[in-house]
Design goal:
The chain has six helices and five strands; from the N terminus they run βαβαβαβαβαα. The protein is α/β, with parallel strands linked by helices.
Length: 150
């Protein structure tokens, strides 16, 4: 599995901790920035990561900002991206099983490093359920995307 990883300045420290954690899990990743705690615009990094995942160069993405909300908004502007903001274990599992989320967003000012690692572990290790009801719902989203973004 290959992960595209990115953060703004508010998520920089958590991103650095998660990079070490991904190495411990032997998961390949690329860091798309930012590279320090100096202020940056989260859309710049969020769009980079989202496009990389959309184009299939990475299996999934993880985006981090102060609350996770901004990165989630940015990622979900890209056709084919299903970004989910998770602040708990249940959401991390459910968003993969039911929604086949391909980008995880986290809020560095909302959760601590320990919980973030557990969310990432669960999210990376949970497969899409392939249940017909979930497939049908995702297909509805794809149909609407295709009509809107011709």
């Amino acid at each position: 599995m290959k992960i595209a990883l990115g953060s703004d300045h508010g998520g920089y420290r958590l991103k650095e901790s998660l990079k070490q954690y991904l190495q411990e899990l032997n998961i390949e990743y690329t860091d798309f920035g930012c590279n320090n705690e100096q202020s940056v615009d989260y859309p710049d990094i969020g769009f980079k990561v989202s496009v990389e995942v959309k184009n299939g160069r990475y299996d999934r993405g993880i985006l981090i900002c102060g609350t996770g909300i901004g990165m989630s908004i940015v990622a979900n502007k890209i056709k084919g991206i299903r970004a989910s903001l998770c602040h708990d274990i249940f959401s991390a599992r459910n968003t993969r099983e039911h929604n086949d989320a391909n980008i995880l967003t986290l809020g560095a000012r909302v959760i601590d490093v320990g919980l973030a690692k557990e969310i990432v572990r669960i999210w990376l290790n949970t497969d899409f359920s392939q249940e017909k009801r979930h497939i049908n719902r995702l297909n509805k989203i794809k149909l609407k995307e295709n009509k809107i973004y011709k």
